[in-house]
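User: I'm new to structure prediction. If I give you an amino acid sequence, what do you actually give back? Let's try with this one:
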Amino acid sequence: FVTIDGADAKDFDDAVYVEETPAGFRLLVAIADVSHSVPEGSPLDREALRRGNSWYFPRSVEPMLPHALSNGLCSLNPQVPRLVMTAELHVSPAGAVGRTAFYPAVIHSAARLTYDQVRDGLLLDTPKPDALPEAVTPMLRSALALARLLADVRRRRGSLGGARHGAGADRDLDPVVPHPGLYGCHRDILCGAKALADALDL
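Assistant: Good question. You get back a string of structure tokens that encode the predicted 3D arrangement of the chain. For your 202 residues, that looks like this:
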């Protein structure tokens, strides 16, 4: 598993793992499970419900949960055990999601990566050899292959791409044109979320 976020991110709430199989791909999406630290109906739970989500401003963040949880105990920091809910999806070479499963687990994230690292290590015409940890690079290549497959499926369905803007005060308002595959792992995460919604008939 690895997390991939912006360079200034402090809380890491999702991680991905991808492997290629004879039948296509096996995708694991791990989402931080806060239920052990935030019991249902507790004061923390009620306050989190009142806030609705974390709020990100140019110079500050107002988290849904206290920093000790959002940036610490419940954050998927590397090389420490963390409780998660996992979506497991098997994707065919044509991009069709087949068998799925959802279960609690404990993971150790192998690395905290940034978008810039993934771009420099995988997506440049001449990748930088030291941009990514060697141990996770083969897995990331599989994740990129799956992300490109899912992107192609989305294009065939008529999905529209979109530019992204940074929230930092030092960034201008010119749209950032995403490099193909740069947001691939988040595309994988969306695939997991859709499979869960389908399973719950949402």
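You can read the tokens as a compact description of the fold. Here is one thing that stands out. Residues 16 and 29 are 5 Å apart (CA to CA).
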